[in-house]
Amino acid sequence: MEMKQLGQELASTSYPGRGIVIGKTPDGKHAVAAYFIMGRSENSRNRIFVEDGEGIRTQAFDPSKLSDPSLIIYAPVRVLGNKTIVTNGDQTDTIYELMKEGKTFEQSLRTREFEPDGPNYTPRISGIMNIENGHFNFAMSILKSSNGDPSGCNRYTFAYENPKAGEGRFIHTYMEDGNPLPSFEGEPTWINIEDLSIDDFANLVWENLNEDNKVSLFVRYIDIETGKYESRIINKNK
Predict the structure, then answer these.
(1) How many Cβ atoms are within 10 Å of 117's Cβ, its own excluded?
(2) Which of 71, 127, 164, 188 has the most CB atoms in a 10 Å sphere around its CB?
(3) Count: domains in the chain
(4) What is the extent of the structural domain holding 118?
(5) Are 178 and 23 spatial neighbours (Cβ–Cβ below 8 Å)?
(6) Alpha-carbon gap, residue 12 to 138, rounded angstroms
(7) What whole-number distance in Å separates Cα of residue 85 and Cα of residue 93?
(8) Is 1 inside a domain boundary?
(9) CA–CA distance, 155 with 211 (Å, rounded to integer)
């Protein structure tokens, strides 16, 4: 597998949909997470990210234009102890609640499948970061239809133990724009994490997303030794 440049990967398609990036800074001191959303319809574009406890949630920018909240209003990021959960839907809550009961990340997602938005059947993508005693590992998951057939659900989990400094993984919902939208294929993309401040990293992601379709971005840097974090939110709607 060839390591890709994150900026180039983001800019390579006008519509990767929703995406999760997880990795480690080159100095090995911080775990990095980014989550972005895009939209083609007025309903999808009518959103912002807002802080919600230690995580975030989506919110209608103009409530009067909100036509269907079912798949667009949710909490993308929640924190459970030393675990940070990042997903593209309300499966964030499923993972949070079931892991709280002692289930694993993968077991929790066994209760869910892709989104019921045919003909796209948008994949549910999820990530979990675990930081404990100065150690960091993470996992990613994708639940998607069986090559566009909703009668089957294909489930993939990718676990990364002791990830290398300056590296990360990038998973997103769609390979490119289309009708129907083609689901993400393969293992999460191996990408570089540049030596950037949190603000410069956020700008790198934001500036390489398609200008017409990008909606909101969340970035978090977590100190691997202390667990302390700082976050940034960028919303197109202001």
Answers:
(1) 12
(2) 127
(3) 1
(4) 6-235
(5) no
(6) 26
(7) 9
(8) no
(9) 32
Does 156 reside within a domain?
yes
Q: Which two tokens stand for residue 160?
A: 């990364």
pLDDT in tens, 86-130: 999 999 999 999 999 999 999 999 999 999 999 999 999 999 999
CATH number of the domain to which 173 belongs: 3.60.20.20
Q: Which helix (H) or strand (E) holds 184?
A: none
The strand pair at 167-172 and 19-24 is best described as antiparallel
Complete edge-to-edge strand list for the sheet that includes strand 19-24: 189-192, 167-172, 19-24, 30-38, 214-223, 229-235
Instruction: Read off the tokens for 113.
Output: 């499948």
For the whole prediction, is pTM greater than 0.90?
Answer: yes
Q: Which two tokens stand for residue 135?
A: 């150690």
DSSP state of 233: E
